[in-house]
TrEMBL record:
Record-linked Gene3D superfamilies: LON domain-like
Domain Lon N-terminal: 11-204
SMART domains: LON
InterPro entries: Lon_prtase_N (IPR003111), Lon_prtase_N_sf (IPR046336), PUA-like_sf (IPR015947)
UniProt cross-references to Pfam families, sorted A to Z: LON_substr_bdg
GO biological process terms on file: proteolysis
Coiled coil: none
Name of this protein: ATP-dependent protease
Protein's UniProt keywords contain Repressor: no
UniProt-listed PANTHER family: ATP-DEPENDENT PROTEASE LA (LON) DOMAIN PROTEIN
GO terms assigned for molecular function: peptidase activity
């Protein structure tokens, strides 16, 4: 377990539109751009092995594109290299952070100074959602998956604990980057579940203000 005092004052970041990492969740990544290959190698040389996942802002497209103010740092816990030099890595979510300023200097990848203040619960125990109505949620989720022609292991989903279920769906469902950011910034698991339900209902309405499908 990482303690608040162990969190570093600077981390490399991977600005990737639509990619969401949440505390205590895992995100697999395929790394092939030279600057991000260098980022992984630099990360492996640090004691904390943290990489910050953060959404580019509304106008991505260059290396210096605007960044959202909140991201999530993950510890590099899985690593393999392909024969042609690409990396397949897994990040395990540790804590969200607020971007203080960029500190990029002398590296091909971007680095930032993060503030970990306000995200102490990310380092704590697994959260539960005491107001979670699973039957209603799975009925809604079933219609969403059918609408988008998605498949899943329903038994595994139904057996999953609240946090694993809600966070996994938040990361995997095909939402827009700004919607993913809203899920990231949700202050609690119950708030994230409410946001997730709202996004699913909105998708089922086809992005209109019509009544939710029954």
């Amino acid at each position: 377990m990482i303690k608040p005092a162990d969190l570093p004052n600077a981390i490399p970041i991977f600005p990737l539109p639509g990619a969401l990492l949440l505390p205590r969740a895992r995100l697999p990544l395929h790394i092939f751009e030279p600057r991000y290959l260098a980022m992984v190698e630099a990360c492996l040389a640090t004691p904390h092995r943290l990489i910050g996942m953060i959404q580019p802002g509304a106008a991505p497209g260059t290396r210096e594109s605007r960044l959202h103010s909140i991201g999530c740092a993950g510890r590099l816990t899985g690593f393999s290299e392909t024969e042609d030099g690409r990396y397949l890595i897994t990040l395990s979510g540790i804590s969200r952070f607020r971007l203080v300023r960029e500190t990029t200097e002398g590296t091909p990848f971007r680095t930032v100074e993060p503030s970990w203040e306000g995200f102490e619960r990310d380092l704590g125990q697994t959260e539960a959602d005491t107001q979670f109505s699973r039957d209603r949620f799975f009925d809604l989720l079933g219609r969403f998956f059918s609408h988008h022609s998605l498949s899943t292991d329903w038994e595994a989903l139904k057996d999953a604990e609240d946090e694993l279920l809600i966070n996994s769906l938040s990361m995997l469902c095909p939402f827009e980057p700004e919607d993913k950011q809203a899920l990231l910034e949700a202050p609690s698991l119950s708030t994230r579940r409410e946001t997730l339900v709202t996004l699913i209902e909105f998708a089922l309405r086809g992005g209109t203000g019509e009544e939710t499908l029954q």
